[in-house]
Design goal:
The complex is a heterodimer of chains A (100) and B (719). Chain A is built from three helices and no strands. With 100 residues, chain A is mainly α. Among the domains of chain B are: 305 residues, no CATH class; 54 residues; 29 residues. In chain B, strand 2 and strand 3 form a beta hairpin. The chains are: A mainly alpha (100), B mainly alpha (719). At the A-B interface, helix 1 of A face helix 30 of B.
Chain lengths: 100, 719
């Protein structure tokens, strides 16, 4: 039986990798993947703690999160395609019109 | 028993609504004017009938001659009109001898003036608009005199002011008329501020605005007991302040020094307006208000003194200016100012009944004189300058006869109405409760002398001296907001023109809607003619009243007894009522001698200059300082112009605009905006446009939040 803390530490590591990826990467596809990493770190925590406390809520939230994430990815990918069509690039640093 | 008092007030309002919507109700202008000329006087006369009914059946039969009923039939008089926090006001009507007397004057004499106006305004294409304002005025005036509290009185007070403004500038295409209306309105604002302040002071002292209320909770009842709303004794300074504030309101409405300057200019309106509003009713509102508040005024000797001195000063100044005027209506305007001064003098010396008696008699003879002068002006095709009149006695004998009666009534000739009312005031002034009786009496007599003089001067210049015009070649003064061409165009066709054209010069009166072509040749060949019956009938009635009211009500003391329940006795206050210096008969003899002397003096002077009608040479007029001083109205207008228009304008331009507005107000807001602008200018640098910067900021935020939460959790759990 693997202790719950192991799952939590793994989730922490995954989350940190996700955050770092979002902060340093310039390719939006990679940034997306990192976001998914963070989401799944959270999902892992849900499931682990749900098991730990013997409740079904954790698994329920994970299903929610998966559904929302799927929708979010489709919207995000749509945006990326739209950006590419208008700017001929998807480098995130080139997309900085919303500034002073 | 249900009261019918609401009818008095609502009938004129009904007439107002009818006249205002006449344009929708009747298609042709002729029917419209005909309907209005029946409805407008009709509702006022019906209101007069209702007043008589209410007076006899409701007021005189009630035990203390006082009843409070609701303005809305069927409601209790205590039904609140507005109720804001602790503040309450009802819309009740106070029925007592004072309010019924005023209602009778307003609807009775007002009704006669309405009848007269149907003749006077017949030719004006805006006649329905005229009667709309006229009926609205009657409604507002009735609200003023019948209202059971200060607030309702104030509504009427402001309402009559608005109507006065609208009617003075009735012929608004002449900008002088519009300016006169503005002047009246603005000067009245000053007085109204005093009234409003007085009202607030009354509310804070007495906790109510009702004149009379059940269980002795009304303002007047509390004042009679010398207590305020909490039962503490009244502070003399407070009661004086209230009285002075209210009197400032009265000064504005009743044209007293220093707020009298608007009344002479108000003569720009049509003559029935001058008669109804600026002589018989509205300008006496101040006297009515002071009399209504006599319970307050008797408590304050200082306020009474102020009222008395302002009254006698106005009476004197007005009469002196009246001596030199050339415009027939302006003579009467200054005479009105002067007579109003008499009324306030009476109030000031504590004889409110005498003041109200003069209101009544003055309403009769001044309405008569104004309407008579209107008839003269009408006969002269709109000429108002007495220098261009003369010899009218033979041409319009009936108008002369009524003017003669009016002149003798106002001059105080024995038997006329003015004789008895003025004598009562002079007698009261001689026994002034606060001293100076002899001085007041002498000034009053001087004023009476001047009144007799300038009225007979008016009669001589207009009726007795040789004509200073050629009969048959009078030039018409066209009063209308439309030029003849515009009227012809509005009528749409020239068809109607022919119908009246044949009447020739004998019927000049048709310079109206359907004789547009007449204006083309400016009434060449217009001659003097008597006024139509609709104008003469009210004159006869008023002439009879000008004689009868004095004799019947004066020496018999009926009037005093009638008004007694509405007026406070001097004994309620710190002063005791004075007694006149001499018995009534001696006072009558002195007054009669003075009046006859004044009349005779004018006769002697103007019989000598029969041909020119000018007692003084032009050379003398320009050189004599006193004459110029009087001609310039004691320089009141000049000084006001300089202080308020010139200096006030400079102050507004240099200080208020350039400094206060531009620098202070605009400056504050502009620098505030600049401050916000510069702060946000530096803060906007944070918005880099790089998503990762924002993500980093969010991460730091979350970390800080978590650290904070953990630290707090540690503290709470005692680690």
């Amino acid at each position: 039986m693997v202790p719950t803390s192991y799952y939590l530490v793994l989730a922490g590591i995954l989350f940190t990798i996700g955050v770092l990826g979002v902060l340093v990467k310039r390719n939006p596809i990679v940034i997306f993947m990192c976001i998914e990493l963070m989401l799944n770190a959270a999902n892992l925590t849900f499931v682990a703690l749900g098991k730990h406390f013997g409740q079904v809520n954790g698994q329920m939230y994970v299903i929610f999160a998966l559904a929302v994430a799927a929708a979010e990815v489709s919207v995000g990918l749509g945006i990326i395609v739209a950006i590419f069509r208008s700017k001929e690039t998807i480098n995130i640093d080139e997309v900085n019109l919303m500034k002073f | 028993m249900p009261s019918y008092a609401w009818l008095i007030v609502w009938l004129p309002l009904l007439g107002f609504v009818h006249n205002a919507s006449a344009g929708y109700l009747y298609k042709s202008l002729a029917t419209r004017k005909k309907a209005v000329s029946y409805v407008a006087p009709g509702v006022v006369l019906l209101a007069f009938a209702a007043t008589l009914y209410v007076l006899t059946k409701e007021v005189l039969t009630s035990p203390d001659h006082r009843a409070i009923v609701s303005l809305i039939p069927g409601l209790s008089p205590e039904t609140p009109w507005m109720s804001v926090g602790g503040f309450k006001a009802s819309f009740g009507l106070l029925l007592d001898p004072l309010s019924m007397l005023m209602a009778m004057i307003v609807t009775g004499i007002g009704g006669l003036i309405h009848i007269y106006a149907t003749g006077y305004m017949a030719e004006d294409r805006e006649q329905p608009r005229f009667f709309t304002y006229f009926n609205l005025f009657i409604f507002m005036m009735l609200l003023l005199v019948l209202g059971s509290n200060f607030l309702l009185m104030f509504v009427g007070w402001e309402g009559v002011g608005s109507c006065s403004y609208l009617l003075i500038s009735f012929w608004y295409t002449d900008s002088n008329n519009a300016k006169a209306g503005n002047k009246a309105f603005i000067v009245n604002r000053v007085g109204d501020l005093g009234f409003a302040l007085g009202m607030m002071a009354i509310w804070s002292t007495f906790g109510t605005l009702s004149f009379f209320a059940d269980h002795g909770a009304g303002v007047m009842q509390l004042a009679a007991k010398h207590v305020d709303v909490l039962g503490h004794p009244l502070a003399p300074i407070m009661i004086t302040g209230i009285c002075v504030c209210l009197f400032i309101g009265a000064m504005g409405k009743s044209a007293q020094i220093p707020l009298w300057v608007w009344l002479p200019d108000a003569m720009a309106g049509p003559t029935p307006v001058s008669a109804l509003i600026h002589a018989a009713t509205m300008v006496t509102a101040g006297v009515v208000m002071v009399t209504r508040c006599s319970w307050l005024f008797v408590q304050s000797p200082q306020a009474l003194q102020l009222v008395g001195w302002i009254g006698i000063a106005t009476a004197f100044v007005g009469a002196t200016i009246g001596l030199v005027q050339n415009d027939i209506k302006r003579v009467l305007a200054f005479s009105t100012v002067s007579q109003l001064g008499y009324m306030f003098l009476a109030c000031g010396v504590g004889n409110f009944t005498a003041g109200m008696f003069h209101v009544l008699t003055h309403a009769c003879f001044k309405a008569l004189l104004f309407l008579g002068s209107g008839a003269v002006i009408h006969s002269m095709l709109g000429e108002q300058d007495m220098r261009k009149m003369g010899g009218l006695r033979k041409l319009i004998p009936r108008t002369w006869a009524v003017m003669f009666v009016g002149t003798y009534a106002i001059a105080g000739f024995p038997g006329g109405a003015g004789f008895f009312s003025k004598d009562e005031i002079l007698g009261a002034a001689s026994g002034s409760p606060w001293g100076n009786g002899l001085l007041l009496y002498i000034l009053g007599l001087l004023t009476a002398f001047m009144t007799a003089f300038y009225m007979n001067r008016l009669m001589h210049k207009t009726f007795y001296t040789d004509p200073r015009y050629t009969n048959g070649e009078l030039h018409a003064h066209h009063h209308s907001n439309f030029t003849p061409e515009e009227e012809a165009e509005l009528d749409g066709h020239g068809a109607a023109v022919a119908t009246h054209h044949g009447h020739g010069e004998a019927d000049h009166a048709d310079h109206g809607i359907d004789t547009a072509t007449d204006h083309g040749h400016g009434h060449a060949g217009g001659s003097v003619h008597e006024s139509p019956p609709s104008m003469m009938f009210p004159l006869y009635v008023l002439a009879i009243l000008s004689v009868v009211t004095g004799i019947v009500l004066g020496p018999t003391h009926i009037f005093e007894k009638f008004l007694e329940p509405s007026v406070a006795k001097m004994s309620l206050g710190p002063l005791s009522a004075g007694t006149p210096m001499f018995p009534e008969t001696i006072g009558w003899i002195i007054s009669a001698v003075v009046a006859i002397a004044g009349l005779a003096f004018a006769s002697v002077i103007y019989t000598k200059v029969r041909v020119t009608g000018e007692a003084l040479s032009e050379n003398y007029k320009t050189k004599n300082a006193i004459f110029r001083f009087l001609m310039e109205k004691w320089y009141f207008d000049k000084v006001y112009n300089y202080v308020f228009i010139t200096l006030g304008g400079k102050f507004a331009d240099k200080v208020l605009w350039r400094y206060v507005d531009v620098k202070l107000v605009d400056g504050t807001f502009n620098s505030l905006a600049e401050l916000v602008g510069s702060v946000s200018n530096s803060l906007r640098k944070l918005q880099t446009g790089y998503v990762r910067n924002y993500a980093l900021a969010i991460m730091f935020g979350v970390v800080a939040l978590l650290v904070g939460l953990l630290a707090q959790w540690n503290v709470l759990s005692g680690h």
